[in-house]
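This part of the workshop introduces the protein records we will be handling. A record pairs a protein's sequence with a compact description of its fold. Comparing a sequence with its tokens is the quickest way to learn the format. The record below serves as our worked example for the rest of this section:
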Amino acid sequence: MNIVMINKWDIQGGAARAAYRLHTGLRKIGVDSKMLVDDKISDDPDVYGLEGKISKAWSKVRSFANTIPLKFYDWQKTPFYTAWIGRDIATHDLLKQADIIHLHWIAGGLLSIKGISRLAKLKKPIVWTLHDMWAFTGGCHYSGECEKYVESCGACPQLNSNKNNDITRKIWRRKRKAYKGLNLKIVTPSRWLAECAKRSSLFSNLDINVIPNGLDITIFKPIKKLIARNILNLPENKKIILFGAFSELEKRKGFNYLKEAIIELKKMFDRDELCLVVFGASPPKIIEEFPFEVKFLGRLNDYSLVLAYSAADVFVLPSLQDNLPNTVMESFSCGTPVVSFNVGGIPEMIEHQTNGYLSEPKNSKSLAEGIKWILEDEKRAPKLGEAARKKVVEEYSLETQARRYLSIYSQLLSENKKSEKG
């Protein structure tokens, strides 16, 4: 069985890491999986990326060109993909040899809507794992409180548009036309995203499968806290709160609520009791004003992430809308409880006061109370962490995920053979 996965990157970004982990999981159980990406970062010989300066330059041009139509709107700089321009991968040798084409996150200039429709001429089953809402919206990756994707989009709040026949309505129409010719199987990592897809006008007639993301639990596993802290040069005698750095502009990530929650914690803990540890891209400057010691670890790979999660007493994710975040799963697998808002697919992972804490959405005081609840009792965090690790081992192992996808692949190939004979 030959599977070709399509994603913008191989290991950069949440969707990429999820796709690449599935790729490695499939190969471990004997499936011939390959990845086709625009930007290859890993040294995996089974990942195929663009080669040559000209091809890579055009990739950047395509990404920028897709933002040009948004210049005619009061775009709020939220993640948005017009998909006007992309690569024609239907002629690629990898896809010609594939038994099944598996789409993941195809934005950033990788595939246009027309490019998706061109895959129909290959007459091969297509599995599409949705890592956000883009596939069934008029261009946004997360809709926020807007539910116009249930009908046909238009008058988009993220573009501050009051015209029904705006660019989102046009994108919706192009998608409706493109999807008609595809042998498409939709998979979502969370039940929440599956429900959104089922309610959408574009996917309401399709069978939606739910397969949670997987994780290599032999890599992401607990390390003794003091050892992890010593390696990372973190304080041994403070409670450590871990979170990822993200842009203040992307409101969906909820940074402002995290900022307010940390200010609330000043009322609950002394200055020298807590240490805030941040990983990821460059942190917002406002972090320098936080009332506790702050340590910034920068970008981390899987192994250094394990150290960071293991060193922490609690991981905080303040997202206002999310699918099935890798970071929650990673933290759980390392035995560290998580505090997050009760939104999206997150409550499918966090069992309130069993392996973490679910705070009231958009409530910074509730977020702070959750952090306090975990930290105030020294025996509580380890107990929650044990339950968190158990959850991942039982439900989110890489082999479990890979075998669930293998079942879908086998079913699709069997159906395809029957239709060819018929």
